[in-house]
Amino acid sequence: MRRGRTRKLVSGRVVIVTEPLPDEPMQWLAERCRVIRAGVGEPEFERAIVHAEALVVRTYTRVDETLLARAPNVRVVGRAGVGLDNIDQTACQKRSIAVVHTPDANTSAVAEYVFALIFRRLRPVEPLECPIDLAEWEARRTTRGAPREFNELTLGIIGFGRIGSRVGRIARAFGARVLYNDIRSIEQEFGCGRADLDEVLARADVVSVHVDGRSSNRHFFNASRLAHLRGDAWFVNTSRGFVVDERALAAWLGDHPAAFAMLDVHETEPIDAQHPLLGLANAELYPHAAAATRSARLRMGWVVKQVWSVLASE
């Protein structure tokens, strides 16, 4: 007697996914429930929100009182990412809505990206695109060398959590001196040294920002704090855009032409023509791409398993 294949039954539960996720987790979720792919304000979202039992969001969907008031059946919100800055956790708690996320998903990707930015500046590489004569060959070898090696630098890390500490470990492996500042007590320092915030800023050749998304960190780097930086410091932010007062940073860069800023996150995304750092010779802006690896995106996308676990347990 021939056995038929067992089919997975799709339940009647409705889950709205507001921003793109990788195909694998989307397919996994679709085998278990009805998945609606639609952003806030789109007609399909507006039709489905009253029936939805779960929301899966990434970076640009704001889950707040206004949205939740229109979603009476939502039981869980999944954030495919690390921070919960765009989710009003108090509003969710009042409605007994679970909030799940993927705090470790992009640690390696962001740490790698920090060094990609630093080394792009420290050791620029120009490939050969055509034959060159001996004189040009020697000129490229002898006149275009980097003035410093990474192991000669002091790296300052502001925020020594998952990503900040990973950056510190990598930097120490390269032989750099690492100073860090964090509001918490840190047990594992990985050879890095704790220092007061002002001391870190004053001594670091490169400052890498990894603070969290608490509201008190808005414009953490304001004019008075930026004034503690060395005049030739490099400033790297891959954490949250709003932690930097961009106008203050633009003014500081204007006063210190030897300094340089590399920002992957911005107070308003996407940036517009009025962005105060756009066009500055000593600033580079990037499109919030630090976590843009296939592996990190998959790890973030698998938040759907946590979402389904909450729904299936009811």
CA(first)-CA(last) distance: 38 Å
Major sheet size, sense and barrel closure: 7 strands, parallel
Q: What is the residue-mean pLDDT, rounded to a whole number? A: 94
CATH topology of the largest domain: Rossmann fold
Low-confidence stretches: 1-9
- Total discrete domains: 2
Number of helices: 12
Radius of gyration: 23 Å
CATH architecture of the largest domain: 3-Layer(aba) Sandwich
| Shape call | elongated
Per DSSP, what share of the residues sits in E-state strands of 2 or more residues? 5-15%
N-to-C SSE string, H for helix and E for strand? EHEHEHEHEHHEHEEHEHEHEEHH
Kindly provide the name of the CATH class of the largest domain: Alpha Beta
> Strand sequence of the main sheet, in spatial order?
8-7-6-9-10-11-12
Task: Determine the fraction of residues in helical runs and give it as a percent range.
Answer: 25-40%
**How many β-strands, per DSSP?**
12
Characterise the protein shown here.
The chain is of the alpha/beta class and 314 residues long. The protein folds into two domains: 14-105 and 295-312, Rossmann fold, CATH 3.40.50; 107-285, Rossmann fold, CATH 3.40.50.720. The protein has helices at residues 23-30, 43-48, 65-69, 89-94, 107-122, 134-143, 162-174, 197-203, 223-226, 246-255, 294-301, 303-312, and strands spanning 14-17, 34-37, 54-57, 76-79, 98-101, 154-158, 177-181, 193-194, 206-209, 234-237, 260-263, 283-285. The chain has a seven-stranded parallel beta sheet, sandwiched between helices. A five-stranded parallel beta sheet has the order 2-1-3-4-5. The chain is elongated. Residues 1-9 have low confidence and may be disordered.
